[in-house]
Amino acid sequence: MRLATLRNEDGSGTVAVRVDGQIAVELDAAHVGALLDRPDWRKVASAAGPRHAFAPNRLAPVVPVPSKIICVGLNYRHHILEMGRVLPEYPTLFAKFADALVGPEDSIIRPSETEQMDWEAELAIVIGDTVRRANDRQAQDAIAGFTALNDVTMRDWQYRTPMWLQGKTFEQTTPVGPVLVTPDELPGGVRPSLRLTCSVDGRIVQDANTADLVFDPVSLVKYVSTITTLRPGDLIATGTPGGVGHARKPPTYLSEGSVLVTELSGIGRLRNSVVGQGT
Question: Which of 29, 90, 182, 219 would bridge with 35, disulfide CB 3.0–4.6 Å?
Answer without folding.
Answer: 29
